[in-house]
């Protein structure tokens, strides 16, 4: 009897070990190509199995993708729990950020598989999508609880903005942390925590931004009409790359597929054009902000306020970076280069403000990435912002950047 039990345990261990290898391979493929690029053939090749063996563990691709995303949410929730037991909001945030940096360090040392990019959850079909979104909201609520029970509606709205900025900046780490050596992670962690705690503006600095003009299109759309770009951007932001099909885009536009393909050979072309438009429009706002009068903090605040207004209330938002993983590698590099250029311009504005004395001394490279992450993800809070006056919504969310996550 003991031998039978040992045999069963061995079979269970082998099953679990192969299942984890399949999940690891699928995670890497999702991060590289998005859910649309996940195939049983590629997973099988990575783990040294045949396709039939993979289907023994997961009958359908959607089930494999859901298992990968559930495992990722397990890991994200564990990091959220790492901060939940601390005594103060600052200590909660510090512990949570430290847990994220520790994970990235283990991944960089090849001791652990990266977490999967979860942006395509919205493209999953029910009931898998519902289960995953419910888990994501549970994690978000745990982060919001870091800031204590809200005393009123304004405090609740502020806690929501703070939790959102914190979570999205942890997702954004993969965009800039690989530029550092693992030995420099502790310093980068401490500088990021410092920005979360104090923001980029000196204590008591006023918030009185000017809203600068935002172009609808830049004239560099390579023949694609502006309303195509706007519709595609909104659909991709709301449903993810996979959820925004060509059929859905042409339905929203009330045009034929023939008309769509007259302008672009494939949806990837359209996504690339949407990214170019977003980066060019952002750059033009930055340039307009730099041309304003006043001090450097005022100019930076004006750019931040303008772009937050675009994401919350504009009819032509900026494209979320979550669509990036679906692009072919050579195009992805081009988009990343455009994004880096925008980030460097923010870093330059911060450096000028530090030299001038109107921006708090901070790491401008890391602070620029915090700005990028927060502006990029702000679209997700359109519904949150719709319950407030535009100026109040922008000011509340911007306070996470200007004065940190704990300012009154």
Automatic annotation (TrEMBL):
<dbReference type="Pfam" id="PF17932">
    <property type="entry name" value="TetR_C_24"/>
</dbReference>
<dbReference type="InterPro" id="IPR009057">
    <property type="entry name" value="Homeodomain-like_sf"/>
</dbReference>
<dbReference type="Pfam" id="PF00440">
    <property type="entry name" value="TetR_N"/>
</dbReference>
<dbReference type="InterPro" id="IPR036271">
    <property type="entry name" value="Tet_transcr_reg_TetR-rel_C_sf"/>
</dbReference>
<keyword id="KW-0238">DNA-binding</keyword>
<protein>
    <submittedName>
        <fullName>TetR/AcrR family transcriptional regulator</fullName>
    </submittedName>
</protein>
<dbReference type="InterPro" id="IPR050109">
    <property type="entry name" value="HTH-type_TetR-like_transc_reg"/>
</dbReference>
<dbReference type="InterPro" id="IPR041490">
    <property type="entry name" value="KstR2_TetR_C"/>
</dbReference>
<feature type="domain" description="HTH tetR-type">
    <location>
        <begin position="222"/>
        <end position="282"/>
    </location>
</feature>
<dbReference type="InterPro" id="IPR001647">
    <property type="entry name" value="HTH_TetR"/>
</dbReference>
<keyword id="KW-0805">Transcription regulation</keyword>
<feature type="domain" description="HTH tetR-type">
    <location>
        <begin position="16"/>
        <end position="76"/>
    </location>
</feature>
<feature type="DNA-binding region" description="H-T-H motif">
    <location>
        <begin position="39"/>
        <end position="58"/>
    </location>
</feature>
<keyword id="KW-0804">Transcription</keyword>
<feature type="DNA-binding region" description="H-T-H motif">
    <location>
        <begin position="245"/>
        <end position="264"/>
    </location>
</feature>
């Amino acid at each position: 009897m003991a031998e039978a039990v040992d045999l069963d345990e061995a079979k269970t261990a082998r099953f679990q070990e192969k299942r984890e290898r399949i999940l690891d391979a699928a995670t890497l493929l999702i991060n590289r190509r998005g859910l649309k690029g996940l195939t049983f053939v590629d997973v099988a090749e990575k783990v040294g199995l045949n396709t039939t063996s993979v289907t023994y563990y997961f009958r359908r691709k959607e089930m494999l993708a859901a298992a990968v995303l559930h495992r990722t949410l397990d890991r994200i929730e564990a990091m959220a729990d790492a901060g939940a037991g601390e005594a103060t909001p600052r200590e909660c945030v510090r512990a949570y950020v430290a847990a994220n940096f520790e994970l990235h360090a283990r991944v960089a040392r090849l001791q652990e598989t990266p977490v999967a990019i979860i942006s395509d959850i919205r493209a999953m079909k029910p009931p898998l999508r519902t289960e995953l979104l419910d888990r994501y909201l549970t994690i978000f609520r745990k982060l919001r609880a870091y800031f204590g029970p809200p005393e009123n509606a304004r405090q609740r709205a502020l806690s929501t903005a703070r939790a959102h900025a914190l979570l999205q900046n942890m997702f954004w780490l993969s965009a800039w942390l690989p530029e550092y050596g693992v030995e420099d992670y502790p310093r980068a962690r401490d500088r990021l925590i410092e920005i979360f705690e104090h923001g980029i503006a000196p204590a008591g600095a006023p918030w009185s931004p000017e809203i600068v003009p935002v172009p609808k299109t830049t004239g560099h759309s390579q023949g694609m009409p502006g309303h195509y770009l706007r519709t595609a951007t909104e659909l991709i932001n709301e449903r993810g790359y996979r959820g925004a099909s060509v059929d859905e885009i042409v339905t929203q536009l009330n045009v034929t597929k023939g008309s769509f393909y007259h302008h672009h050979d494939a949806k990837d072309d359209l996504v690339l054009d949407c990214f170019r438009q977003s980066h060019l429009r952002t750059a033009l706002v930055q340039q307009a902000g730099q041309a304003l009068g006043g001090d450097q903090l005022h100019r930076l605040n004006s750019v931040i306020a303008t772009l937050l207004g675009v994401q919350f209330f504009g009819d032509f938002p900026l494209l979320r970076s979550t669509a990036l993983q679906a692009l072919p590698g050579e195009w992805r590099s081009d988009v990343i280069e455009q994004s880096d250029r925008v980030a460097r311009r923010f870093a330059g504005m911060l450096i000028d403000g530090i030299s001038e004395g109107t921006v708090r001394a901070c790491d401008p490279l890391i602070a620029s990435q915090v700005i990028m992450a927060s502006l990029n993800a702000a679209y997700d809070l359109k519904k949150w912002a719709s319950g407030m006056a535009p100026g109040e919504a922008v000011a509340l969310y911007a306070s996470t950047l200007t004065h940190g996550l704990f300012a009154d």
